[in-house]
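Q: My collaborator sent me two sequences in one message, no labels, and asked for predicted structures for both. Can we handle them in order? The first one she listed is below.
A: Yes, handling them in the order given. First sequence, followed by its structure tokens:
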Amino acid sequence: TSVRGWSPIGVESLHREYRNVFGGVGGNRNAASHLWASFILDRAATLSRQDVSMLFTGFCPVSGSIVRPSDYNRYLLRLRTANGTHTVGGYMHYCCWPCVCDTQDFIRVDTKVVQTRDGLERFTFGVIEDPCTHEYKLDERFVQPFSMRTTTLRDSAPAIQCDNGRLVGATRSEGGHVIIGMLHDPTPATSVIPSDEVRSNPRRGRVTTGPNGVQFQDELEYAPSCT
């Protein structure tokens, strides 16, 4: 459903909507990037294509954390499509580098045609399988790697709510997958070639400048850390 009357200026406009996005789940944004995505897409008809893309740089698609986009937190990725036919290169902004590993493990890409103020536009999104397909897993106990506290997904991420096996509040891609972020500047992965230095001597935190002048961290810098 399209929602009217929002004129964002920068990602800070999105951040000021935090209570509207997460108020229904007690203000907890853990693993709730699908709610950020739906908030933007529900309002896309009043936004330009550029604004839609810009707003998707304002949160981490993995954790749901607020992000202030910069060259340092822009990461170059090469992700498989949800149907497994090919790999797409592009950028995402993260709150921290471990999200690179989670993306490689769990996120794929799919497209969706969105009605914007400029007309119909096809975007490439980061998507996941619906966690509510296996809702029982939300109650499996595990140890948080940072706090070393034993918890469950249902306790730690209350925004993950299910209704008849479907994630509440999620927007779906053309393939029916849950949209949690956007892959910016998508391009065939065969054209995204890492430098010899990145391949031979990966180093976390190094910023690379691409042929088009865009600065980013290459996901391959984290290959030793993600294994």
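Q: And the one she listed second?
A: Here it is, processed independently of the first:
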Amino acid sequence: NGYMISISQRRVRLLKHLVMESDLFKIEPSIACDKIFSQLPEKSKGRRNSCQKISKDKFDEAMRCVIATSNDLKQNMSTDTQRLLSDLLSYIFTSFNSSESDGVDAKEIACGFTVLCGGRKSDKLEHAFELMDKDNDGLLSRSDMVRYLFSFLTVLLSISSCPIGREPREEFLLSMDGNPIKIDENTLSRLIKDGSAWATTQVFNSANHRQMKDGQECINFDDFADWYTKGGYTSIPWLELLDLRKWVLAEVQ
């Protein structure tokens, strides 16, 4: 029946404080993604078809590199801000690691992390699309599209539900009819997977100019963008949250 992503004003203010004091809102998505991929084992780098896993230690190191890149005056970030940002990033990593394995999919967490970076929604979507294009042919299959949308939805729901600072973990989501539904982490993980699969179905059932490749339906970025701007945004409006200027940084010009 669907659920609504609801992020309280207190969380928005806290996120605004974190991305501004850390200067994350100034960093380009491609730079952040490169920092994450730089922490992969040498044998995994450049292997577009492989499932590239990144461990928590390597992800933490990548985040330190991202922060060092984004802020030339890092001594101005308070200890409290560093702790809160670390808590948020750790929760995001955990959200991608529902199976509690040794690592998470590097492409998925890199694409999702761009939510916290600067830049336009369209730029983030296009860069993430290129990262998910494992054959480098400009096309995503249905399974690729699920991972693509899953990456963004995981980070957005992590922001909306994680315990951070004085904000406790959100234990309820609002259904589309306005009723609060109690959730736990397992339920949230299932909702993200189901939501990504449902959104992918909307894309492929409605988009024009789908292509066949190796017996699978595929779509290129231009056709995905065309579908979204011509009405797809009503199916997955949460993609608008990829542009921090529209909500977190609405008062910062």
